[in-house]
Structures are given as structure tokens and as C-alpha cells.
Amino acid sequence: MSNEQLKYDLRGVSASKHEVHDAIKNIDKGLFPNAFCKVIPDIVGKDHQFCNVMHADTAGTKTSLAYMYWKETGDLSVWKGIVEDAIVMNIDDMGCIGCIDDIVLSSTIGRNRTLIPAEVVSILINHTQDFLDKLAKYGIGITLAGGETADVGDIVRTLDVGFTTFARMQKKNVINIDIKPGNLIVGFSSFGKATYEDNYNGGMGSNGLTSARHDVFAKVYASKYPEAFNNSIPDEVVFNGSKLLTDKIDIDGESLDIGKLVLSPTRTYLPIIKEIIDNHRVNVTGIIHCSGGGQTKVSKFMGDDIHIIKDNLFEIPPLFSLIRAESGLAYREMFQVFNMGHRLECYVSDLDTAKQLIAISKSFDVDAKIIGKVEPSDRSKISIHCDGEVIVYEY
């Protein structure tokens, strides 16, 4: 494997999604070209003061790991996490443009009926409303509009869980990312236990699962669950870790299954984002959900001649330290694939706003701090400081 060829690419996936971005580069970018989600005219109400937002996403290959863990342990609760993953991957992206309420949600579930029984489908459908009810307690209104559950075993190996979201909002409330030199960057922890979470969250989210499950877990699963991975990828990158799904790891005095740690539900930041938008919208120049692309996600929204410096990151949490130890991946690839400790970052204009955002986050028991700054540069780049190393990505 060449130095330029990421292991992630060898597994048939892409952290940067450059092929997708190349394919859509000439498509209209909507009313706010630098918004985190595409914003279109108000087709519904035909009011020029309003706009519409639609988003679609899935839990990705996390369902394959959930399938394996469920088969090994019989623990059906992991499927609740998959529901939350797929919902959060939509609503937190929408939150980055300031859309935090009056959202319509619809599901698309494709299953291999011979492997995924009705009891799993029941959990997926019923927990959807349970999760929406929890968010409603924080002033986040989401209405379930039904969905489609299809038996598509010819094209889906195990299960695919996706949602589509829609909202109508006022144009004046849209956050169109405008990162500038002098901005400070506030990072919001992806790990720990928020006031609105039931268990410790390892911080994984729903990106990088193809890498995590193959790098961490043992080769025994390749023969045991051939339906749970792409059989056409090179054997050298298939389940080449040392861990079993039920092996334990100690975190903060608690013994956790490694399989369940990796399956930690994607943390939603909407309760925090709502407080930020309600009180500090005017001083926020951008909100980034560090999903596909990890700590380099912001590269899709930074302007020319900007240098984003992340020089005060969170200490790498146990889950990502485990993945790095098992995979041997260089930090350069790790930061492109995983969030590495914070999955949300806000760009703000002044120190006082940064301090207030940190206080809001901590009121929900989600750690937050200033993780970096923005400086002018002769070309666009991101610098990440970690363990005495400075990793530079140029664009």
C-alpha cells in the first residue's frame, strides 16, 4: 500500500468523497452556497422571506457492526442506537444552518428479510418516536411522517436504515458559513455522557465505521459473518484487529464491551445548538458538524487564503486511542476519517461569545473549549497539532 493510498480507500469507501463532490460540482448550490445544507426557495409556501431545506442520510455501515453484536449477544438495544444514528446524521447537519424546529421526518429501511426478523424492524420503527419525544423536551419539534420498509435482500446484505428530513424556515435565520481570520474555534466533545444521554458515549458517531470495525475486531468474524462486509475488498484489510466484540475496556471506572463502545449512538448536539442560536446567533460565523472527513470537514466551507489552526484539541478519547493502537494508522489518516474527540465546532467572532458557548455546552455535561483559531494565509490550509506533530492539509 502506497503512502498516498488510505486504508479507508482500500475498503471501498472514501473519507473525502472526492468522486461524489466532483460529480456534483456543477449542480446549483441553492440560495446560500456556503451553508452546511442546501437551501432552496420556498416551494411549499411560495413566500420569498422563507426557504425550504431537505436532507437525507443513513446510519451507514454501522448497521453491519450492530448486526454482528446482536447476533453475538442477543442484545436488541443496539438497534435503538442505529435509529438515533440515522436521525442525528440528518438533524445535526440541519442544525448547522440554524434549522432546529418544525422538522418533518420520514424513514427508509431496507432489510434482508432472511437475516433481519420482524422484532428488529419493530424496534427501529417504535424507537424513532421515542427519540423524537425525548428531543421535544428540549424544544426541538420533529414530526414523524411515516416511511417505507422494504425487503430487498438481493441488494442489501443485512440492513440499511435511513431518514429524510424537511423543514421550512425564514431566510433571515439561515447560517451561511463565513469563516474569517480572527475567528476562534469552539469544539464540543463527542465523548462522555450528556445530560440527555443514557450511557457513556465513546464518540464514534456514524463515520469511520468501516475502518473501526475492520481495524479493531478479529479475523474470526470474517468467516462467521460473511454477510456483514464487502467480500470484494482485499483480505489484508478485512477484520485484522485483535479484539472480540465482547472484550472489555475500562473507562472512568466502568467496564464496557468494546463492541458496544464502538456502537455508541451518534451524539446529537441540537439541545446545545438551540441554546446557541437562540442567544448568540449574531456572533457565530459558522457551525460545522465534523462528519465525513472528520477534522478536515471544514475544508468544504472555508474560503480562499484561510488557515484554520487546531492547536488545542481534546485529549484523544479511549475509543480512538484503541482504534489507532489496533490499526497502526498515522494521525494524518485518523483525523481525516474520525472526529477524534469533538464532532461539532463553532466559529465565533470574539472571546466572550466563545466563553458563553462553552458554558452552554457544559450545562448539558458536554465538555467544550477553544480548540483553535483562524488566521490569514497565502493559501487555504488546515493545521492540526497532536502529540508534538503538526499535520497540514492544503487545498
Give an overview of the whole structure.
The structure is a single chain. This protein has 395 residues and is of the alpha+beta class. It has a single domain (7-199, 264-394), classed as PurM-like, N-terminal domain (60s Ribosomal Protein L30, Chain: A), CATH 3.30.1330. Helices cover 30% and strands 24% of the residues. It contains twelve helices and 14 strands. It has helices at 7-10, 18-24, 62-73, 78-95, 118-136, 209-216, 220-224, 258-262, 270-280, 318-327, 331-337, 351-363, and strands at 39-41, 50-58, 103-111, 142-151, 159-170, 184-189, 248-251, 254-257, 284-289, 306-310, 342-348, 368-376, 381-386, 389-394. The strands form three sheets. A seven-stranded mixed beta sheet has the order 9-11-6-12-10-13-14, sandwiched between helices. It has a five-stranded mixed beta sheet with strand order 1-2-5-3-4. β7 and β8 (254-257) form a beta hairpin. α4 (78-95) crosses α5 (118-136) and α9 (270-280) runs antiparallel to α12. The mean pLDDT is 94.
Summarize, please.
The chain is of the alpha+beta class and 395 residues long.
- By DSSP, the count of extended strands is 14
Fraction of residues in H or I helices? 25-40%
| Count of discrete structural domains | 1
Please report the first level of CATH classification, the CATH class.
Alpha Beta
Mean pLDDT across every amino acid position:
94
Q: Could you give me the name of the CATH homologous superfamily?
A: PurM-like, N-terminal domain
CATH topology: 60s Ribosomal Protein L30, Chain: A
Q: How do the helices and strands follow one another from N- to C-terminus?
A: HHEEHHEHEEEHHEEHHEEHHEHEEE
Q: Kindly report the spatial arrangement of strands forming the biggest sheet.
A: 9-11-6-12-10-13-14
Helix-strand makeup class: alpha+beta
Inertia-based shape: globular
Which residues form runs of ≥5 with pLDDT under 50?
none
CATH architecture: 2-Layer Sandwich
CA distance, first residue to last residue = 24 Å
The proportion of residues in beta strands is: 15-25%
